[in-house]
Amino acid sequence: MKDLISLHYLSTGEIFEILKVAEKLKYELKNGIAHNILKGKTLGMIFTKSSTRTRVSFEVGMAQLGGYALFLSSNDIQLGRGETIYDTANVLSRYIDGIMIRTYKHSDVEDLAKYSSIPVINGLTDLLHPCQVLADLLTIYEHKSKLEGLKLAYVGDGNNVAHSLLYGCAKVGMDISVATPKGYQCNFDVVESAKEDAKLTGAKIVTTEDPVEAVKDADVIYTDTWVSMGQEDEKKERINIFKQYQVNGKLFSMAKEDAVFLHCLPAYRGLEVTEEVIDGPQSLVFDEAENRLHAQKAVMALLLGK
Ligand code: CP
Ligand code: NVA
User: Residue ranges of the Aspartate/ornithine carbamoyltransferase carbamoyl-P binding domain (predicted)?
Assistant: First the structure.
């Protein structure tokens, strides 16, 4: 593993290794055991979109591992003025030890990884959000003591988070049902390649337009915003289309009794999820947000710590 671009590119073993290292680093942090695994290493963090969790957890994680993180807003670096990905990749590879990038076009991240001699970590593209799903898997594992054989139901927009969940579940042997409205389904190629991944673990992948069908017997209910970054102009139309896909108390009660609720955040209460669910006793959203830190520290330790 040189980069973290997509969970599709990782083996089941590599995903479990990240989760194992994350658990260990979390335990050690809670018990005051300090680390200097990344002493002297620098991570460049390129952002062309907003972020709270990704930015803070990478920066803090790097500091906790003894390294340094550099925030590179696309407004301030020449990439934002048209310098090529090729030149940016080559130049940054001469200065720093790893790059985390959050941007729009997924192919830009693939190109950055292709032209960089240092590890590249995908901090979200329009297509995928692998770091999020590593934290999600860690959270589910902590609360259910297993991943294989569980069922996750994703209800809402067939977006970047849904895509990474498809790969993540397929790789660890967790069944996943995705309920989206017509026209907002997951990317066809992602669904097909996740189904290929699932053949190796026996995970079942179902796509439907029916949220009730999706949540039946689910151990985990997951949703995300109906309006992702870059879709602000479609807000009114999307809110109207997605109304039937709200995760509210009624829908949540149709899952297993001990089902847990996840949301990558930021959340919009009253739209994709009601307060009753996200602020209710079965919601794990803040454990999930915390686990971004631990999961990404594991990714950085494994990629940059060599
Ligand atoms: N979940 C997530 O990636 O949050 P941010 O957009 O705040 O980084
Ligand atoms: N789907 C959302 C995730 C935010 C973390 C977006 O892309 O804006």
Answer: 2-142
